[in-house]
Amino acid sequence: MKLRIFTEPQQGATYDDQLQVAKAAERLGFDAFFRSDHYLNMGGDPLPGPTDSWVTLGGLARETSTIRLGTLVSSATFRLPGVLAISAAQVDEMSGGRIELGLGTGWYEEEHTAYGIPFPPLGERFEKLEEQLEIITGLWQTPQGKTFSFDGSHYHVADSPALPKPVQSPRPPIIIGGTGARRTPRLAAAFADEFNVPFRALDETKAAYDNVRAACEAAGRAPIVLSAAQVVCCGRDEAEVVRRAAAIGREPEELRANGLTGTPEELVEKIGAYAGAGATRMYLQVLDLADLDHLELLAAEVMPHV
After folding, report:
1. Among 31, 71, 195, 212, which is most exposed with the fewest C-beta within 10 angstroms?
2. Domains located in the chain, CATH noted
3. Are 291 and 5 in contact (CB under 8 A)?
4. How far is C-alpha 19 from the geometric centre of its chain's CA atoms?
5. Would you list the DSSP string of 18-75?
6. Do 45 and 12 contact (CB within 8 A), yes or no?
7. Is 29 within 8 Å of 303 (Cβ atoms)?
8. Is the alpha carbon torsion for 139, 140, 141, 145 positive or negative?
């Protein structure tokens, strides 16, 4: 099981806050540093305001050296597919080939309203997501010296030089997530290298994994990497668990029911259950970016046992 650190910077983090967590995660041996892609906080103090995910990852790419970097997940409503392909390929080059692209439909209508971003109905967002995946993977995988064209319902690409190329070949890994029973598994089987289930109980996660396994089999491809994302709140004893839960405005009982919460021994057991369902990567959602001792504890007392 690989452990990855996953942050929500729109909840109140500067670039420097994210940098210190990414550097600590790299030093401590975590597999990756991922961030959400949102432009509006979800309650609480709105300061200091959002940071753009791909601008941030470009900066982190130059200030780290080994840890993998990515989004969980970028919204297809935020960027044109050709522009996103260029941005992610450039950051892949800046990082020496350490970028992963999580891409989804987008769901938070209020952030679209707040920043003048169109927010079409869900069906149209799924159509756009599929076309974006076609275009991004097509641009990245077009041989150098050849051109790429695409004629869809929402996007049209004509004779693109399909540049720049990412460092990773044939392309950076793509992550698709969710719990939908039909469209999401089909898209994952068609385009993804990894399928992620965020913030769901074990039984719902297992069901989603089964749907993706079936979709991969129907598409004639090998099973893809399976992962899960959970809020993490670990303490050496119950008092430390309570303190960390309070720092993020949550109750320990609620977090135990809906996340990875408790002593290191409790977390090892819970992560093991997700591993038993097929997960090989766990995204630990760290909500208090100032608490670097939390990362130290996870690296010392959880990581060696999973």
Report:
1. 31
2. 2-108+166-305 (3.20.20.30)
3. no
4. 17
5. HHHHHHHHHHHT-SEEEE---SS-SSS--TT----HHHHHHHHHHH-SSSEEEES-EE
6. yes
7. yes
8. positive
* The two three-digit tokens of residue 177, written as one number: 């997530």
Task: Tell me the C-alpha to C-alpha distance, in Å, between residue 196 and each of 53, 202, 203, 260.
Answer: 19, 13, 14, 16
Instruction: Give the bridge partners for 230, in sequence order.
Output: 284
Q: Which two tokens stand for residue 242?
A: 């309570």
pLDDT at residue 44, as a whole number: 84
Report residue 268's pLDDT band, with 50, 70 and 90 as the boundaries.
very high
Is the torsion defined by CA of 46, 14, 106, 42 positive or negative? negative
Whether the bond into 48 is cis, omega within 30 of 0: yes
Distance between CA atoms of residues 200 and 205, nearest Å = 6
Instruction: Report pLDDT for 276.
Output: 98
In this prediction, residues 198-209 reach a mean pLDDT of: 97
CB 102 within 8 A of CB 177: yes
7 pLDDT band (50/70/90 cuts)? very high
pLDDT digits (tens, 9 = 90+) for 140-181: 999 999 999 999 999 999 999 999 999 999 999 999 999 998
CA distance 282 to 232: 10
Determine the average pLDDT of the residues in 236-253: 96
Structure tokens that stand for 231 in this block: 């809020």
The verdict on pTM exceeding 0.85 is yes
Phi/psi for 15 (5° steps) reads -60, -45
Alpha-carbon span 102 to 229, nearest angstrom: 13
